[in-house]
Model the fold of this input.
Amino acid sequence: MSRDYTGTFQFVEQENLDAYLKALDINVALRTIVCCLSPAKEIVLTGNHMVIKTVTTFRNYVMEFDIGVEFEEDLGPVDGRKCQTTVSWDGDQLVCTQKGEKRDRGWTHWLEGDILHLEMRVEGVTAKQVFRRKK
Done:
């Protein structure tokens, strides 16, 4: 059974984000900006439908999907690519697989109490972000 990820989460820390963005071919100027941001996550889970909003002072990104159903994701605001994306439950973890130009691309979200973890992967590079549920 899945956990309830619904809530607003504030950024706490990150590691290896610059290397991850470099693996996505993001230019150095944009990588510098992105690495300085403190994103918030707004997540709404209704049945099998999920909306994840990543909100920053620079650019926002909204990902809306049904869990377990493949869809075309437009990552234009992130890196200008489109890919076939599937987000599924693996126990209490949300695991995303993105098929496209970049190999082994995807992410995993999991909760530990009020802490939301995000591990992002692409072409053998892993970055991590941590968020705390806003009360």
In short: Residues 1 and 91 are 7 Å apart (CA to CA).
